[in-house]
Structures are given as C-alpha cells and as structure tokens.
Amino acid sequence: MDTPTSTSTPYEQLSLYIDGRFLAADGRKEQDVVNPATGAVFAKLPHATREDVDLALAAAGKAFQSWRFTSPLERGKVLRRVAELIRERAPAIARNITLDQGKPLAEALLEVQTCAEHAEWHAEECRRIYGRVIPPRAETVRQLVIREPIGVCAAFTPWNFPFNQALRKAVAALGAGCTLILKGPEDSPSAVVALARIFHDAGLPAGCLNIVWGVPSEVSSHLIASPIVRKISFTGSTTVGKQLAGLAGAQMKRMTMELGGHSPVLVFEDADVEPAARFLARTKTRNAGQVCMAPSRFYVHEKAYDRFVDAFASIYGSLKVGDGLAEDTQMGPLAHERRVGSMESLVADARARGAQVVCGGERLSRDGFFFAPTLLTGVPDDARLMIEEPFGPVVPVTKFSTTDEVLARANSLPYGLASFVFTNSIATAHHVSNRLEAGMVSINHFGLALAETPLGGVKDSGMGSEGGAETFDGYLVTKFISQASLVP
C-alpha cells in the first residue's frame, strides 16, 4: 500500500451508493471539489437526481424488512470487519481527507484510525440491547418490554470530520437494526465514499446503507418528507438544525441533533496555568479550530491572566501553517474561502470594541484559505466573537474575578455543547461541573468524543447523544407486550 504522503495514491473515485451499487456521474449534475490549500478544483462530485433519492428510499425500506430481524451477532460481525478495513485503508483515506478538507495529514489519519474503535464498540453494544419482564398482576399474564429498531433513518453529516461523523451515525443505525440513507458533505466527500466501500466489502447487505449527494436543502427536505424515513440524525450548525427539526417535527419523526457550540473555558487561579495554556493552544490548533467542541471562549482568573496569555501566545503565535500534506505543517487551511472572511469580520468587530491582537489577526498572503492563528485579549462580552461560534483559529481571552461571575457569563449563551475547566481544587471542579449548562464538561484535559462516552449537547446545541451506552437510544422504539393465557 502507498504511504500516506505518496502522491501516487489516487483520489477516491466519487460516486453515489444506492442499493449496493456505486453510481458515477453518467450525465448527472456534478459539483466541483476544491483543495483548500490551493483553491484549485481537482475533482467532480455527482449529484443525485430526484429519482436516485427515491431509489435509495425504496432500497432502504426493502432492506429494513430483513436487516431488522438479523441477529445482533451477525450485525456485530459486519461492524468488526468494518473496523478491520478502516485500519487497513486509513492511510489512503486520510490523504484524501487532507486533499479535500485541508487538515494536516496526521490529524486526518488519527480521525480515521480512531473510527475503528467506534465500529468495534457498536459491534459489542448491539449485543446488549435488552428488554425486561414486568411482574404481572395475574398469574396468567406475561408482560414484556422489548426494544425494536425504529426503521429507515436519514443522516446528514458535516465537512469538518467527514469520516468520523458519517461512521458514528452509520454504526449506530446499522448496529440497532435500522437502515440508513446518508447525505455527506459535498465539500469533502472522499471519506464518505470510502466508508461506503468499506461497508460494501465488509458484507453489508444491499440497501442497508445508501449514499446520496446534492443541494443540501433539496435532498434533506425530500428525505424528511418521505413516509419511509422514521428518524433523522444531523450534525451541523444550529440554524440548519432548527430548520430540519421543524421539518421532522411536522412529521412526528425522531431526531438526534448535534449542533453548534461556543465552548467556555474556565481557568481558575489554582490551576497549573502555564501547562493549561500550552495544552489549550495545541487543542485549539486541531482542524484550524473548525471543531464544534473546540474551546472557544476563554475566561481566565485575573490573578492568572497574564501568565496564561504569555504561555498561550508562545505556542499559538509560532505555529507552522501550511498545506496539510507538508510534514512540518502544524495547522492547515480553513475549509472554505467564506471561513476566512468570517474570521476577518470577527476580528474587526472585536478590535472595534477595544480588543487587542496579541498574535495573528489576518489572512495569510498565499494561495488557499489560510488565516493566521489569532489571540485577542480584553475582548468584551458583547463582541460578536464572544457570542457567535467562531469555528476557526481565533481565540478571545477575558478576565474574571469570582466563580459566580464566570458561571453566569459561561451560561449566558443559548449554546450548551462542551465546556472546559482547569483547576486543582476538587471542590471547585465539583461545584462548577454541576452548574455549567453543557452536555459535556471536561476538567483539566480534553476527554470527549470517545467511543465509550456519550456525545451531545443541551439548549440550542442539540438533543440526544451519540456514543457510549446511550448510543442506540435514538434508533430504538419501546414496545410493550401483554400476553394472557386463556382460562379453561
């Protein structure tokens, strides 16, 4: 197999995947795929026609009638083979993610490799979808509660972690006994096509997984309106999530939503300040800050503020920014040209409100979609950067004085996905973790998104969880069976 850096490794042959068949363009409308490191078009992605989407719906509906009754052992066997193939093909998949999404190759490789754990976790957990027996009121009655797969699911996944997000939804739906139609990110499509090939080669029956591409609003509205689809899963922005939730709610369809975040970071006076700052600088670098759980609002105790800023800036301001395929690159480009404009707008607004630029603050003068790692201090709470999810390498840092004050500020936004706390006080950690309005709290490290842990938010950051023991909850319905013996 070629090494990850080999230029001879071919880019994924992009296609649809419907009822066990890979469908190329063949006259279908096509969309440009752009390399964010150069701004150049290097591939074409075929869009599904309305007839293609209807074929996918019919295939998923037909396949569900048999897949739903397969043994969990059989479903687990497929998922374990998926894990094996992920590990075998990770280098080539990672290189293609770097080409169409932009992240450094090492990050792309890690994204793919860790997905094998998610496949294995779901292979084991699907054997533990238990029901229960309820003691009856009469000896001639038997009362059972069983959990059944909800049906055909439609999933919509984002461009920032194209393999990870698609894989997580696929293994949850398929492990539960559901079938799936997945619309991945048109901007970074190679990973999703590679995933379809993995499931195909792992022996998944035709129709259980289908991949379609197209104009997002057109595909999503058509899928959600179909009576064949009984559940939707979406990861993406809060704005789009609410639109899809409205469509699904009108049809009384189950939803799992992992939406936007603006994760507060609380650094207390008693924390290991300099190590925390250096750790956060490296964490924020990941995927150029294009991570829904990324630390993004930094509140630092006034007595630790200067030390934190100095330590953070020493790492963040010296990062090597470049093409993700270059060995010395520490941070790659943003995924789209529009993201660069968003960073410029957020920085300009913060500066107009009195913030100071410690490092970065502008786009880099080169081909591609590059923005310098940026640290701003003295950012007021009414700056857009403190209110809107930045989704990029721009970091606002501000001071706080008391615990009650910082909790009020951290909880002031409608977001509630992830949060981070740095302290050496058990009492502070306990108090703050109980009062932060977030679906996930990570104390003194980044401990999120593991296969065995639930991932999900509260408030405008979504509903439901993926991963952990909760992973199948959104894909199962509860059925109560009461059976009586006829009295002779």
Describe what is shown at a glance.
With 488 residues, the chain is an alpha/beta fold. It is built from 13 helices and 20 strands.
Architecture per CATH nomenclature, i.e. the level-2 architecture of the largest domain = 3-Layer(aba) Sandwich
Order of strands, widest sheet: 14-15-16-13-12-17-18
What's the CATH topology label of the largest domain? Aldehyde Dehydrogenase, Chain A, domain 1
Structural class determined from secondary elements: alpha/beta
Largest sheet: 7 strands, mixed
Q: What's the CATH first level of the largest domain?
A: Alpha Beta
The CATH homologous superfamily name of the largest domain equals Aldehyde Dehydrogenase, Chain A, domain 1
> What is the C-alpha radius of gyration, as a whole number of Å?
24 Å
* Unreliable residue runs: 1-6
Percent range for β-strand residues: 15-25%
Distance between the termini: 71 Å
Mean pLDDT over the residues = 96
Count of helical regions: 13
Helix content: 25-40%
Number of domains: 2
Number of strands: 20
> Which descriptor suits the 3D outline?
globular
Task: Give short descriptive properties of this protein.
disordered N terminus, 2 domains, single chain, 488 residues, Aldehyde Dehydrogenase, Chain A, domain 1, alpha/beta, 6-stranded mixed sheet, 7-stranded mixed sheet, Aldehyde Dehydrogenase, Chain A, domain 2, 37% helix, globular
